[in-house]
RNA sequence: GGCGCGUUCGUCUAGCGGCCUAGGACGCUGCCCUCUCAAGGCAGAGAUCACGGGUUCAAAUCCCGUACGCGCCA
């Protein structure tokens, strides 16, 4: 076991938003680094010039920041970097890659390949036909200097391939899956430099992980198959390999790889729907990792203290919004009122509830605190305090159109118009007295009040809600509802 | 097609040969609380541990096949 200081990295390609799978990979890298007092590095793998965009970089950095996962080295924003291994954008490191490319070329461990796309397609077609694995046959491996010169004289472009060993096996000693063996002669000679004169992902990745002293490469399952090739590049350069850990994928409810079809996949969408960063950390931590006890809710400190690679799941996990929602509700309930209102600010603003006349938001939100699953639920559940009552048709028909309901509203408006103090307990006592006086049942009075004041059959505890709403508003709403019944 | 990975309640999972008549969490059902909806409390249903063979006194746990799913190569 290495005694080196732990260094992990998350290395996204900026070709889109940070999705749930990437978020979990980031989290695990972060947790592992923090767990071992190590360093967490963020590196942008933007070698795909066509698909990489600045907007994606921004979106990814925003996502990681929102998740609350701070990185020790990496981009600060689109322009500057922090850390001793800067720059952390691969396209700014091309000279470095070129240096090692030349080293491999000089050592005869890589070679120029002049095959065109058409030729490669043909090769593949034939292989399919003959039921052979459709891989590059290595025809340019043994080209002489003269042959190469004539290809180039003919103006042919070339890519550069890495020479995989033709015999033996490469073992990936995976921290999660154990030893995984690959036969070398079944691996093809990987393109490490493109015809367009640029490095490829698999090459840069190796160079950077080595140069940046990465000790643990924790990444998605989809990279496992490329790992033997990468390991051989380490060997060819005379480097020690880091330890690898491949995480299983995250699936959608139908068992296929989580994608747009399944709804939200981008981390930022979860932010915009009103999930708390802590919920995402906790939920994602448990999606593919677990402790031996039955604990579900963890503080960040607990997560950091307990996280390990041993308990990472080998099989893929289905993303379950229902449990996510439960957890978010748990954390919203655990959030102090003032903090909750601050967190909900964008949602309250979007709903136009800020600065509206009416009760203090803090009071109305407090009434429903235990019911919110999402921050975006907050305005939906308290908006009736701040705008004219909109009656739910069913509630209106069932409760207000009930026999006697109109009279109850009218009588109550009279009873309450001068009532003081207009507070929870006194109100309850008075209204219960009203019920008795009229020889009615609780429901015949309580329900109409609620619907008249809120438009709905469900809502906060009644008398406290009336207190918060205030006498004038309550009396007015009772009368308006009665008038509507005319 | 080749190679690789995986398979425990609907979902996330515990389990590393006897403690498993398989435990927990979310969800679901019922009851309690109650002015509604939640929250909370209690109870319950729900998994022949993918299938088939071995190994062993003993297997969800080890080995081998099969099926299915997924990934990579293109």
Tally of strands: 13
What is the straight-line distance between the termini?
83 Å
Radius of gyration: 32 Å
Residue runs with pLDDT of under 50 for 5 or more positions: none
How would you briefly describe this protein structure?
With 486 residues, this protein is mainly α. The protein contains 20 helices and 13 strands.
Give your account of this protein's structure:
- The protein is mainly alpha-helical.
- The protein contains 20 helices and 13 strands.
- The strands form 6 sheets. A 3-stranded antiparallel sheet has the order 5-6-9. Strands 1-2 form a two-stranded parallel ribbon.
- Helix 1 packs across helix 10, helix 16 runs antiparallel to helix 20 and helix 17 (424-438) packs across helix 19 (462-469).
- It starts with 6 loop residues before the first strand and ends with a helix.
- The structure holds one RNA strand of 74 nucleotides.
Which helices and strands occur, and which strands form pairs?
Blueprint: E1 7-10, H1 20-35, E2 39-42, H2 54-66, E3 74-75, E4 81-82, H3 94-106, E5 110-113, H4 117-129, H5 145-153, E6 159-162, E7 169-174, E8 178-183, E9 191-193, H6 201-211, E10 216-220, H7 227-236, E11 243-247, E12 250-251, H8 267-273, H9 277-286, H10 300-306, E13 317-318, H11 321-333, H12 337-350, H13 361-368, H14 377-382, H15 393-400, H16 405-416, H17 424-438, H18 442-454, H19 462-469, H20 471-484
Parallel strand pairs: 1-2, 10-11, 12-13
Antiparallel strand pairs: 3-4, 5-6, 6-9, 7-8
Helix pairs in contact: 1-10, 6-7, 9-11, 15-18, 16-18, 16-20, 17-19
This protein binds one RNA strand of 74 nucleotides through α4, β8, β13, α11 and α18.
């Amino acid at each position: 076991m290495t005694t080196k200081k732990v260094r992990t990295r998350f290395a996204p390609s900026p070709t889109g938003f940070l999705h749930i799978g990437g978020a979990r990979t980031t989290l695990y890298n972060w947790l592992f680094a923090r767990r071992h007092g190590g360093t967490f590095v963020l590196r942008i793998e933007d070698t795909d010039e066509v698909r990489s965009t600045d907007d994606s970089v921004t979106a990814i950095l925003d996502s990681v920041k929102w998740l609350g996962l701070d990185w020790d080295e990496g981009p600060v924003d689109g322009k500057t970097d922090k850390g001793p291994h800067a720059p952390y954008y691969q396209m700014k490191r091309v000279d470095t890659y070129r240096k090692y490319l030349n080293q491999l070329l000089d050592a005869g461990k890589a070679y120029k390949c002049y095959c065109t796309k058409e030729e490669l397609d043909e090769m593949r077609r034939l292989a399919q036909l003959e039921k052979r694995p459709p891989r590059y046959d290595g025809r340019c491996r043994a080209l002489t200097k003269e042959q190469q010169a004539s290809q180039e004289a003919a103006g042919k472009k070339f890519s550069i391939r890495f020479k995989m060993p033709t015999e033996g096996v490469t073992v990936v000693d995976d921290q999660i899956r154990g030893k995984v063996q690959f036969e070398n002669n079944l691996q093809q000679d990987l393109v490490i430099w493109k015809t367009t004169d640029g490095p490829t992902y698999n090459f840069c990745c190796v160079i950077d992980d080595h140069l940046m002293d990465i000790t643990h490469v924790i990444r998605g399952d989809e990279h496992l198959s490329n790992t033997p090739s990468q390991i051989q590049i380490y060997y060819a350069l005379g480097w020690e390999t880091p330890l690898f850990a491949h995480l299983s994928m995250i699936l959608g409810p139908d068992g296929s790889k989580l994608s747009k079809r399944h709804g939200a996949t981008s981390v930022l969408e979860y932010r915009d729907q009103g999930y708390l960063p802590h919920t995402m950390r906790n939920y994602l931590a448990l999606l593919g990792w677990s402790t031996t006890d039955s604990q579900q809710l963890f503080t960040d400190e607990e997560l950091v203290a307990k996280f390990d690679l041993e308990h990472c799941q080998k099989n893929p996990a289905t993303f379950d919004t229902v449990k996510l929602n439960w957890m978010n509700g748990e954390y919203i309930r655990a959030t102090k009122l003032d903090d909750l209102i601050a967190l909900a600010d964008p949602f309250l603003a979007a709903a136009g509830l800020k600065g509206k006349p009416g009760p203090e938001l803090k009071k109305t939100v407090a009434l429903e605190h235990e019911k919110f699953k999402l921050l975006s639920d907050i305005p939906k559940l308290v908006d009736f305090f701040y705008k004219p009552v909109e009656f739910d048709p069913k509630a209106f028909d069932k409760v207000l159109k009930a026999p006697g309901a109109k009279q109850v509203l009218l009588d109550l408006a009279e009873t309450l118009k001068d009532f003081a103090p207009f507070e929870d307990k006194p109100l309850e006592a008075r209204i219960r007295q009203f019920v008795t006086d009229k020889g009615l049942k609780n429901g015949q009075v309580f329900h109409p009040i609620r619907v008249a004041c809120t438009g709905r059959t469900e809502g906060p505890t009644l008398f406290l809600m009336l207190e918060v709403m205030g006498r004038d508003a309550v009396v007015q709403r009772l009368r308006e509802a009665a008038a509507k019944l005319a």
